[in-house]
Design brief:
The chain is mostly helical and 60 residues long. It has 3 helices and no strands. It has helices spanning 5-11, 21-28, 32-48.
Length: 60
């Protein structure tokens, strides 16, 4: 079975479906090692993020 980088990224919680087609095309070519690195970085960033992250709020 061939490695599906987009599926692996989705499973890890990366919002790949919100990206442009061209961006998804680049991510689809990642190797298993590259996806593991991205997932590791994502996990480390989430581990140090506060419980509440900033949001943009526009008031009229």
């Amino acid at each position: 079975m061939t490695f599906d980088a987009l599926h692996a990224l989705r499973e890890a919680g990366h919002p790949v479906d919100l990206l442009a087609v061209e961006q998804r095309s680049v991510l689809s070519q990642l190797t298993e090692l590259e996806v593991r690195v991205l997932n590791s970085i994502k996990g480390r960033l989430e581990a140090v993020a506060g419980e509440v992250e900033g949001q943009d709020l526009k008031l009229l």
